[in-house]
Amino acid sequence: MAHDPLDLTGIEDELQEDERLVRDSVARFVDAEVLPDIGRHFADHHFPRELVLPLARLGLLGSSIEGYGCAGLNAVCYGLICQQLERGDSALRSFVSVQSSLCMFPIHAYGSEAQRERWLPAMARGEAIGCFGLTESHGGSDPLNMNTTARKRGSDWVLNGSKMWITNAPIADVAVVWALTDEGVRGFLVERGMKGFSTQEIERKMSLRASATGALFFDDVVLPQESLLPGSSVGLKAPLSCLTQARFGIAWGVLGAAQACLSEALHYTRERVLFGRPLAATQAVQIRLAEMARKIAVGQSLALQLAHRKDRGILTPVQVSLAKWNNCRAAIDVAREARDLLGGAGITTEHAAIRHALNLESVITYEGTETIHQLSVGRELTGLNAF
Ligand code: TGC
Ligand code: FAD
Q1: Ligand 1 in reach of 101 Cβ (< 6 A)
Q2: I want to staple 131 with a disulfide (CB 3.0 to 4.6 A). Which of 112, 172, 192, 317 is the partner?
Q3: Phi, psi at residue 351, to the nearest 5°?
Q4: What single-letter DSSP state applies at residue 379?
Q5: Which ligand 1 atom sits closest to the C-alpha of 249?
Q6: What is the dihedral of CA 53, 56, 62, 66, to 10 degrees?
């Protein structure tokens, strides 16, 4: 075959040698350690915690951070890492997104030197796990409408409220929590074991079943002043800057899920013989496969363009919104098409398509729903805020 069907625009040729090496090492890990068991973990609603230390040993936790035991890789490498992990399962990419972009990034960007020294090396080694608490049950799209409060009491802060839909909550050692102070929203580090802090797993999800999702509860949790992230400005700017990091990784990651689905659909339709010929030899099926490949190719070009802008320090949040929206929509469409092309076989976890399609229902919702990103782009175009 002249072209790799998963890379019609030749992204491979644009990569540097070190970027390929990172990509290939993660790909080998996913093939050997993730794919054999992930269908079972999904079916069992179980986060495979035993993969955390191997992920750390590969340098995949906080991989963009310089120092503190982190790998200091560029944006293309971070994207490729997310893509390979999500080729395995969105749950693994979610774990790495939250650990790296939503916890280690704010500790590095807004934390004190003592907070960095305390948490970053341990998190890079996979010995400490983090979560990010922004969303509350009454409406995640509008995080400024927040009920969780942090009130000053002497030199301490007292935290009350709850957070909902928090990835890693049931297994986290530390939570980056955004709470309303008298001045506005600020970020705090809340540690497991602190009096009044508890977590609860959300059961019976039909999506991201191999990820641990939960709620955080704060009942008069007393936080010393050292728990405040001192470098975070008042308001949503700091948490939104974390989301931009994670959304960038998602824009790359979801295409890994889409590639897995296209690959499976190509294989299946070549083998499946109906009405005397392979399904893949019919015009209708070829058009559908071509559409899937087109969506992946366009998404890849967008992701690579964003990575180069990120490395040059000129990436804007609205560009990330555009890519998160476009690539999640592309990936879920591809996964649903693959599921359909597999017919009845497509509804079991023997094949990957339904698992990816169901996972992508969460991915298109979290980190800003599709509508939120469309409205961000709309605001950029018109100058009018329609939220
Ligand atoms: P907006 O006007 O857009 O911004 C407020 C201030 O923040 C600034 N800003 C940024 N600054 C630095 N870096 C960034 N990336 C920034 N993005 C925005 C902005 O310039 C402004 O600054 P200033 O100085 O002018 O005040 O804020 P808004 O209040 O209008 O925002 C509205 C909206 C809807 C866009 C925002 O609330 C939003 O994004 N909502 C969606 C919430 C969301 O995405 N939640 C995600 C929770 S975490 C999650 O889902 C994790 S899943 C993880 C996994 O498992 O992988
Ligand atoms: P809502 O905000 O209630 O939205 C409901 C619907 O209304 C959506 O379709 C939305 O697009 C639409 N809508 C909203 N505003 C408008 C408008 N102005 N006009 C038209 N339509 C609108 N959060 C964290 O803080 N940390 C995490 O680690 C985390 N992990 C998650 C993991 C999973 C598996 C899931 C499902 C969610 C996670 N979230 C996390 C929460 C996630 O960010 C929110 O679910 C998301 O932001 C949407 O919020 P919501 O669910 O409250 O929906």
Answers
A1: no
A2: 172
A3: -110, 160
A4: H
A5: 56
A6: 140
Please give the full DSSP string across 94-105, using - where no structure is assigned.
HHHHIIIIIIIH
CA of 384 to the centre of ligand 2 (A): 22
Amino acid identity, position 126: G
Q: Is there an atom of ligand 2 within 6 Å of 132 CB?
A: yes
Q: Which two tokens stand for residue 31?
A: 């093939």
Cβ(239) – ligand 2 distance below 6 Å: no
94 lines ligand 1 (CB under 6 A): yes
Residues 6+ apart with CB under 8 A from 376: 317, 318, 321, 368
Active site annotation includes 117: no
Q: Ligand 1: distance of its center to the CA of 317 in Å?
A: 8
| Average pLDDT of the chain to the nearest whole number | 97
Do residues 33 and 60 make contact, with C-beta atoms less than 8 angstroms apart?
A: no
d(CA 253, CA 118): 29
**Whole-number Å distance between alpha carbons of 256 and 90:** 9
Q: Is 359 in the pocket of ligand 1 (CB under 6 A)?
A: no
Ligand with smallest separation from the Cα of 169: 2
Q: Return the CA Rg of the chain.
A: 21
CB 177 within 8 A of CB 187: yes
Mean pLDDT of 3-31: 94
Span 250-275, average pLDDT: 98
How far is it between the farthest Cα atoms of the chain? 80
Distance 371 CA to ligand 2 centre (A): 10
CB of 105 within 8 A of CB of 145?
no
Asked if residue 184 lies in contact with residue 177, where contact means CB atoms within 8 angstroms, the answer is: no
- Which of 113, 361, 367, 380 is the catalytic position? 367
Q: How far is the CA of 64 from the centre of ligand 1 (A)?
A: 21
Q: Rounded distance, CA 71 to CA 363, Å?
A: 26
- Structure confidence by residue, pLDDT tens digits, 74-133: 999 999 999 999 999 999 999 999 999 999 999 999 999 999 999 999 999 999 999 999
Tell me the whole-structure pTM to 2 decimals. Answer: 0.98
> What pLDDT does residue 3 have?
67
Q: How many CA atoms lie within 13 A of 249 on its CB side?
A: 32
**Exposure of 211 in the CB half-sphere (CA atoms within 13 A):** 32
Q: What is the pLDDT of residue 1?
A: 46
Ligand 2 site, residue 387, Cβ cutoff 6 A: yes
